[in-house]
Amino acid sequence: MSENIPEKKKKSALTDRRKFILNMARGVGIASISGFVWSAFVDEVTASQLLLRPPGALKEEDFLKTCIKCGLCVEACPYDTLVLAKPGDHKPLGTPFFTPREVPCYMCPDIPCVPICPTGALDTQSVSNDDGQLDINIADMGLAVVDEDSCIAFWGIQCDACYRACPILGQAITIEYQKNERTGKHAFMKPIVHADACTGCGMCERACVTEKPAIYILPREVAQGKAGDYYIKGWDKDDEKRLENAHEIKTTTEISKQSASDKLNGDLLEDLY
Amino acid sequence: MKTLWNNYRYLFLRRLTQIGLLFLYFGANAWGWTIIQGNLSSSLIFGTIPMSDPYAALQMLFAGAMMATNLLIGVAIATAFYFIIGGRAFCSWVCPINMVTDAASFTRDLIGMNKLTGVKQPASRNIRYWMLALSLILSAVMGVTAFEFISPISMVHRGLVFGIGFGWAAVVIIFLFDLFVLKNGWCGHICPLGGFYSILGKFSLIRVKHTEENCTLCMKCKVVCPENQVLYMIGKESLPVLSGECTNCARCIEVCDDDALNFSIRSMAQNKKTGE
Question: How far apart are the first and last CA of chain A?
């Protein structure tokens, strides 16, 4: 009888070792559940592409790891241009951005939003010139893009609102004159954006007179294509240097081993569909 | 009036620091005050002294971010304060969510939820350390500060200073969770920031000290304590509360009518013990 009791106990109660293993398994299991839910959520909330960051912001990928979401840049901005993303904005939570149509960046010469950043997510170096002086004109927040279909200047109506609003007028936006063949006596005054000078401040988007702006700022990666190293401006010595980066690509096309007449007498439709 | 002050003096002071800090942060954004700018993630005191959330910085480190000097100085200041002096005081004296969970705890008691669910809690208080580890793993894997993108603490605090959006939902979720699902659920079980400060503040100087000779075993302290496992010595031994999980909220000191609990400085408390 006395021998039976411990045996019974053994069956009903868990040993310490088993308890430990079960507890650890439980912990790991619950951690995996939360890990998947958590990472899925974070992946979703950080997946916003069309986002305009303050001047001097690191590349989006680095910005997301470095920004501590303290809002010091927002407080430093004298025009209330910058805001922190709130739940419901569908932007990476707590990170600063601006909406040019509402409040553009007014390109303060002293760039108060950048040096105050405690983490370097807004990098002073990237908005300083070679002398180490802050220079907002080299900031890169985005790139203005003109929708020629809705821009009334492209219709032939005289408007140069964006050109006049541009803080680096004459460099970032120029006006191209072209004869209006329809009337025969007027000119188109087409706004042309120059990607190398445009900072993406959004003054043009703010100034645009159309109901929905015909000129608007997109993040540079979204707005621009890339020719790659295979297309070179042969007339430009500097551009020719890019050839050094180009490497050979070999492509092979599989050629049918059937003879031509067999091919033609076969089921051609099969190849088509 | 005197008893009212006596019974709620620390609670009053805590609400004062919590709401006062919020107000100062709010004023910085709304009216350009420069006493304390930014938010709890990173601040600038009097326009010069940086102070940063060390847990957020740790996530940045795991995410592979470059650590700026200002950030490191800010982290060092905050870490030194909680490591040497405050312990886990952030949770009860600064964090705005503390007011939400205290309200939930109060309501829970008021409507008798505790009688319905019983004393036995269905979840371990160690979940927060798992969450802490998980947040660092996710930060490393995803290359973003994982907890900072879901943290209801920064969401709410940022929201109150800069505009809240749907951030109020986080308050409701935590309130309802603490009220109906788990007593002291968020702060006492899940929050990895609390877990972080539990570890960081483990060796801090300010400690609650129990004097067993004065104790009448009324257990009011254990009822009111949001982390009552740290008060294991009540009525048994004269010991300081040495667990890092104690938030130094001092509710136990206030409710004690017998002067059996008081604040003390760590080394003195220990000297007394060894002297005996």
Answer: 82
**Model confidence pLDDT, tens digit, residues B127-168:** 899 999 999 999 999 989 999 999 999 889 998 888 888 888
Chain A residues in contact with B143 (beta carbon < 8 A): 61, 64-65
The answer to whether B42 and B53 have CB atoms below 8 angstroms apart is yes
Q: What is the pLDDT of residue B271?
A: 52
Q: Is residue A81 located within the same domain as residue A123?
A: yes
State which of A104, A139, A174 marks the end of a domain. Answer: A139
Q: How many domains does chain A have?
A: 2
The residue of B53, B55, B62, B66 whose CB has the most chain A CBs within 10 angstroms, and thus the best one to mutate to test that interface, is B66
**ipTM, 2 dp:** 0.86
The alpha-carbon gap from B242 to the nearest alpha carbon of chain A, in Å, equals: 25
Given a cut of 90, whether residue B237 has pLDDT beyond it is no
Minimal C-alpha gap between B128 and chain A (Å): 11
Q: Can you give the CATH number for the domain in which A91 is found?
A: 3.30.70
Residue type, A93: L
| Among the listed residues A40, A45, A108, A115, the one whose alpha carbon sits nearest the alpha carbon of residue A73 | A115
Does any domain span residue A260?
A: no
Find the domain containing A218 and state its range.
142-223
